[in-house]
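Changelog-adjacent note: as of this version, every example in the card shows the full chain rather than a window. The one below runs 595 residues end to end.
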Amino acid sequence: MTQQDKHHPEHSILLSTIFRRLIIANFIQNVTMSITGSIDTALIGRSLGATGLSALQLSVPIFFIFSIVSQTFGSGASIVLTRQLAGGERDKAIQTFSTVCALTVCIGIVFAAIGLFFPGIVVNLMAGSLADPVVKAGVTAYLKPILLAAVIVMLYDVFVAVIIMEGGEKRMMRAVAIIIAMDIIGDLTAIKLNAGMLGFGLSTSIAYVLAFLSLLGHFRSKQSMLRIETKIKMPYLVKGVILAGMPLGIRFLCVFLRPLFVNRMMLEYGTLSALAALSVQDAIHYFPQAMCSGIAATALLMAGMLFMEQDADGLANERRDILRWSFIGCTVFAALTGFCLPVLIRIFTTDPEIYSLALTALRWYLICVPFAAVNYATASYLLGIGKTTLSSLHIVLDHFAFPVLWSRLLGAMFHETGIYAAFAASEICMTLFAGIVLAGWLIYRKSHAPKEAKDTNIYELRKHVTSAEEANEASQEVYAFYKFQGIDPRQVYHLSLCMEELAVNSIEHGFNDGRKHHLEVRTAVSDEWLILRLRDDCRRFNLKERYEMLNPKDVESHIGLRLIFASADEISYSSAMYMNNVCIKIRLKDKPAAA
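Full-length structure tokens:
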């Protein structure tokens, strides 16, 4: 049984606002690789020509190898940390974060050792036996400094995932600016010194080192609820992080393997110019792909939080936001990119053959952008609601099986044009396939559902509050609603008082900065608990820290705060995803009667 906010039917406006802010933050983070990749491609294409572009195209998968580790740990950590902080387990969250960082460093050292002592192994894996010897030499020169900086590159990804989860977008944007600026300076220096692919590799590595140092400061500031400690617990904590982040690790494994197959198919069915055009396509397609990845990363964080809270309405709102941003936002983004293609491609090459092939490749790719956004977000949503196996299967089909299959089929029939068209064919096919499977599952579930569903005996009330008067009205509604359900009146009274105190406090201290803010109140009966959750997008306010600072002898100060802690059995606070989240639990004396 659920009662919605009659005065504000758009009670989920806060979630939609946060969804938009997270997409923007994740887009900016993902577009970093787009911009740096575009800069490298443009300068390499103009200074080293088709040979340099081909070497870059064969080298890029090394970043996806790093991402297999960093995205598994980063996404897994963000999911686990969100749950731990929401449960008030800050010390445990600090241990989790420290453990993830330590393990990332260990794996990065292994990559650095391979780059220092056995670079030929990685080069042969990337380039294969079909590549020209000059191209192979370029791959070798580019990969050496990148491998030596593996620890920094992977830790950068882990830090960014956690910082976005904590709402530290300003720090993240500063790091992005550092990477872009230093990459441009380094690339221009490499050209002036005639340093070739080695110079471009060094430029990228130095840019990541400086950006990493900027991010490191976040965990030494008061903005973060986390810090890095030497005390770690490997087996217990890492298992949960890896399980949570495994599907995204699988995604980057597929994204790494796919170019290895597609690049070799291009060398088999196409030409060196066609492979160079694929490098130009990759440089430009990173921008719409960053939007798709931003939607997916947001879907993961939001779904994990809402699923943990058993917020069915919030999850339904999220699904609508996913479709809206995928089919409307990404279509507009792709159309604008398509309009600019003639100018964009000229940035990367002056070769008329590469220009023509790149134009064909990108036009095919842009067709699939809205479908790619839906596919990316679907896999993330499934992971967020705990469907890890389904998410992993979806990722393997979308990022490896369908693209390689369509590249083989269309490449054999239409050569390089077929391989370009395979990207669009695979994404559209994946969307249709997932839709058919979902429709079949819903039909099956409906036909096999019992005629009379059992009453779950769960009661819920939501309110969207914008003033102290509305907070008082909401408090009265909460009292009347739960008293009617047969819950102990004294406990309901305590809950309503807590709600009003917290809401008024949020409005008085968080709504006074001249910006528009939102406060959402949700109360529910779940199992043995009467639950109150307040969520706002105001500045950080840790209820528990403020209570611990009170003078125990001065009992007359902050009476409202003392009342809350006296009435509640459990209180948790977390500051994540640009939101303050306060959850209060009161253990029920008597269960509500069935409706």
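Structural remarks: The radius of gyration is 26 Å.
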